[in-house]
Amino acid sequence: MEAVYRIINSKNGRYYIGSSLDYKKRKRDHFNLLKRGNHHNKPMQEDYNIYGTDAFKFEVLKLFNGIDRNALFDIEQEFISKSNEPMRYNLYDNAFGMSYRGKDNPMFGKTHSEEIRQKLSEINSGENNPWYGNSDHMKMMRSRITKRFDGRKHTEETKLKMSVAHMGREKTESERRKLRLNNGNNVGIFIDGLFYRSMAEASRQLGISRTTITSRVNNPRFKNYYRCSEGVETNSKPEISAG
User: Fold this and answer.
1) Helices 42-51 and 23-36, interaxial angle, to 10°?
2) pTM higher than 0.70
3) pLDDT at 5 (0 to 100)
4) Per-residue buried b or exposed e for 18-56, using 16+ beta carbons within 10 Å of the residue's own CB
5) Residues 15, 8: Cα–Cα separation, whole Å
6) Is residue 136 one of the residues assigned to a domain?
7) Burial status of residue 166 (CB atoms within 10 A of its CB: 0-12, 13-18, 19 or more)
8) 3-class DSSP state for residue 196?
9) Region 191-203 average pLDDT
10) Helix, coil or strand: residue 9
11) Into how many domains does the chain fold?
12) What is the C-alpha R_g of the chain?
């Protein structure tokens, strides 16, 4: 059952606002991660480490039965907008997350040094790359792409129609939201109950290609793979297409 919920710290009054298409399961996910010490919300995890399980209470702010995802986001946003910002654990100002606020952003006022850039490059190079050593696969994919578009070009008429169709057109909020949710580099995901900040991080730690992870996240048969956007899991299909 869908709900907008709040996790409140009874010791200092701070709280976390979220929403879920299955709030009972989401509650279990939150507290399991807190107990393991690897919850994606660092401020709440730090307070949990200080005050313990008994200090944190889960309460349903509004319950639904059959509400769609976008409407759930909108209602969660109402609660976030009306809440007291200094008391919120939420790292984002909006219901669907995607960007840290000011000093809460770990890169606030910083840039990566050349040394860090080199290390990041090394992390994704060689054997750490999911396609490393799999030249046959890459040849096959290049061949398919080449065959698909070989000799094909848009006519001038088609180009003009495409240009006119997109001229001055703005994406709807629903379209922008779906694009944000489908961006695996910016959206955290849960796999087997563990949180990963991005597809890339999950790929490196699990040794599974991002293509495979994306496919499973968008496949309803893999219930243990789902996107998470600051408290809202985004695993409902087929509403969100493959990213």
Assistant:
1) 70
2) no
3) 95
4) bbbbebeebbebbbebbeeeebbbebbbebbeeeeeeeb
5) 4
6) no
7) exposed
8) strand
9) 79
10) strand
11) 1
12) 21
Nearest by Cα to 112 from 125, 121, 104: 121
Amino acid at residue number 95: A
Answer whether residue 111 is part of any domain.
Answer: no
Share the mean pLDDT of the chain. Answer: 76
In DSSP notation, 36-71 reads: HT--S-HHHHHHHHHH-GGGEEEEEEEE-SS--HHH
Write down the pLDDT at residue 235.
44
Give the three-class secondary structure for 133. coil
E strands within 1-155? 3-9, 15-20, 56-63
* Amino acid identity for residue 1 in this structure: M
Statement: residue 132 has pLDDT above 50: yes
CA gap 36, 64 in Å, rounded: 30
Report d(CA 159, CA 153) in Å as an integer: 10
Who's near 187: CB < 8 A, 6+ residues apart? 97, 98, 180, 181, 198, 227, 228, 229, 234
- Residue 46, domain member (yes or no): yes
- Taking alpha carbons only, the member of 243, 103, 131, 241 closest to residue 187 is 243
- Mean pLDDT of the 14-33 span: 94
Question: Do the bridges between strand 232-233 and strand 194-196 make them parallel or antiparallel, or are there none, so unpaired?
Answer: unpaired
Residue 43 domain boundaries: 3-104
Q: What are phi and psi of 189, to 5 degrees?
A: -135, 155
Q: Find, among 68, 83, 66, the residue nearest to 18 by Cα.
A: 83
User: Residue 50 sits in a domain of what CATH number?
Assistant: 3.40.1440.10
Q: Is the pLDDT of residue 106 over 50?
A: no
158 domain residue, yes or no: no
